[in-house]
Amino acid sequence: MATHAGGSLGRRRRSDGERTHAAILERATQIASVEGIDGLTLGRLADALGVSKSGVYAHFGSKQQLQLETVQAAGAVFEREVLIPARRSAAGLSRLEALCEAYLSYVERLVFPGGCFFAGLLAEVDARTGPIHDLVREGERQWSRTLQEAAAEAQHRGEIAGDTDLELLGFQLQGCLELGNYHFVLYREARVLERARLAVTGILGAVRTAPARGDSA
Amino acid sequence: MATHAGGSLGRRRRSDGERTHAAILERATQIASVEGIDGLTLGRLADALGVSKSGVYAHFGSKQQLQLETVQAAGAVFEREVLIPARRSAAGLSRLEALCEAYLSYVERLVFPGGCFFAGLLAEVDARTGPIHDLVREGERQWSRTLQEAAAEAQHRGEIAGDTDLELLGFQLQGCLELGNYHFVLYREARVLERARLAVTGILGAVRTAPARGDSA
DNA sequence: CCTACCGATCGGTAGG
DNA sequence: CCTACCGATCGGTAGG
């Protein structure tokens, strides 16, 4: 309903309400990454923020809306911490490697205290139905596509073998990344992420057409 | 306290109470595989069984005991459906292949309605602490070890290359299996399990020393 | 195994 | 944003 004409003051500063809303969602992603999206309750979130339950509720109007916005907020963090950094690497094999490393780094730095937000959410809602299931399914599909497109560009450039099955390559890499996340959170040892990195390197090494600088022989 | 001397009647038949207990746990594993171990509540379980809440409660004495026994009951199913069938295959590469196929078949047949019980549980409790976390961690460690031991025997027999890193091979296979499970439950398409099978075959093909019967060239 | 209950917490509402 | 409340459900208990 509001027009874009803001008058002589130009674009308004982000309001207090908007900043509070964003702060609530940041806390919500932290809680949900450990307790699950179902473990995120209005009361727990309100306690963590030091406000009343209805003070939180008023921002969303329903628990489902809070959950959906929390998932979307986590998606923005994933983009900022994984997708955008990887885009700084050259398209092709470099970017494919960068995507894998950016993901493992995002896990290792505990951007979310419970590890990858979407790895946890995937397992929580995969067997259910509803809007959150659908949101997660689309996010997972997009992540698979991102890996596969980077692999396709690497193949187009002749950096990986022409007969490489890109779907399988992406699947194998994605499996190593997700298992790396689960094991890191489960065992709490940095060593398991090193194992994931070596597994990724091994899979890429098997399809690479030219040895990387520094390889022996 | 009871002795093993059962008198002239020999070993007693399994009592009604024991059969009821087992029936409760079977239902509990089904509910927990979809709703999570935290989504398994006494009230929901009682409703599904058509008994009163305290009728269920009396069998376990606490919710934690119910949860622990449910996880153990699911472990017995995993052993029956995955580990024991795979042991019918010859030790070495055949058994490693059989372990992967038995796992994917167990997922595909929906032995648990929510897919692999432990894949879901892993993601649910990896970031928490307590006896269930510990139980899952030991189970996951054992599953990794089982895959790795089969790979070691394959290497010992000369079926896979002598310089294969067994830990990485096991990790890559385990990643494909778990991602196959998550995607099958998420997308509900049989095709994604075919992808997982091909991903496993591709990984094993890269380290195999002799071509399998039927391979071209 | 049952009914009947306990205090705590759930999502959500009323009224300010 | 708050207090105060609603009915439903949670894990657990008492008493039979």
Topology:
The structure is a homodimer of 217-residue chains.
Chain A: H1 16-35, H2 42-49, H3 53-57, H4 63-86, H5 93-108, H6 117-125, H7 131-156, H8 166-187, H9 191-207
Helix pairs in contact in A: 1-4, 1-6, 4-5, 4-7, 5-7, 5-8, 5-9, 6-7, 7-8, 8-9
Chain B binds a DNA duplex (16 and 16 nucleotides) through residues 20, 41-43, 51-55, 57-58, 61-63.
Explained architecture:
Two copies of one chain form a homodimer. Chain A is mainly α and 217 residues long. In chain A, 68% of the residues lie in helices and 0% in strands. Residues 1-12 of chain A have low confidence and may be disordered. The A-B interface holds A 33-34, 36, 38-39, 113-115, 119-120, 122-124, 126-128, 133, 136-137, 140, 165, 167-168, 171-172, 174-180, 182-183, 185-187, 195-196, 198-199, 202-203, 206 and B 33-34, 36, 38-39, 113-115, 119-120, 122-124, 126-128, 133, 136-137, 140, 165, 167-168, 171-172, 174-180, 182-183, 185-187, 195-196, 198-199, 202-203, 206. Chain B binds a DNA duplex (16 and 16 nucleotides) through helix 3.
Q: What value does the Rg of chain A take, in angstroms? A: 20 Å
Give the largest interface: A-B, 44 and 44 residues
Query: Which sequence of SSEs, written as H and E, runs from N to C of chain A?
Result: HHHHHHHHH
Report the structural category of chain A: mainly alpha
Assembly type: homodimer
Spans of at least 5 consecutive residues with low confidence of chain A: 1-12
Strand content of chain A: under 5%
Largest sheet of chain A: none
Helix content of chain A: 55-70%
| Mean pLDDT across residues of chain A | 92
Note the total helix count of chain A: 9
Shape, principal axes of CA atoms of chain A? elongated
Distance between the termini of chain A: 67 Å
Compute the number of strand runs of chain A: 0
